Amino acid sequence: MTQESSIFGTDRVPDFRKHPLIPVVAQDIHTGRVLMVAYMNEEAFNETLRTGQACYYSRSRGRLWRKGEESGHIQRVRELYIDCDGDTLLIKVEQLGEAACHEGYRSCFFRRYQMPEGVWGVVEERVFDPQVVYGSGATPPSGPSPEMTQKENGNVESA
Description:
By secondary structure, the chain is an alpha+beta fold. The protein is built from four helices and eight strands; from the N terminus they run αββαββββββαα. It has two domains: 12-95, Ubiquitin-like (UB roll); 111-153, no CATH class. The protein is globular and about 45 Å long. The N and C termini lie far apart (35 Å).
């Protein structure tokens, strides 16, 4: 591995003064599957580096979100990459627990647009019940509900 400080100068990478929140793609280190996309601010980034566990900034909660703090499904960071512009991170993680998605799926990308039918379909099985993990106040799904798309499509496809 080479050090390329000349590419970024002496400034801290990523530069949170320029971009206070940066997108982070979390990818399963074993399968290469994208698990989720979230954001980090400087505090979340520093905690991730310090602890080795993914910590994000929740825009909806307005605070740090330590992945797995409620569900126990933590992400152990194994590799960390930054893009060519220095404003997006890719973290390769070991997903501990059944899922990365708060809706109970292994990945947040469990819906696929079916072409040419023009409908969204759920392409994997739920691995846990969000109401059991988070309680009855669980965050409702965004976008088309898995139940609705399963009914519309007649079944759940295997990924």
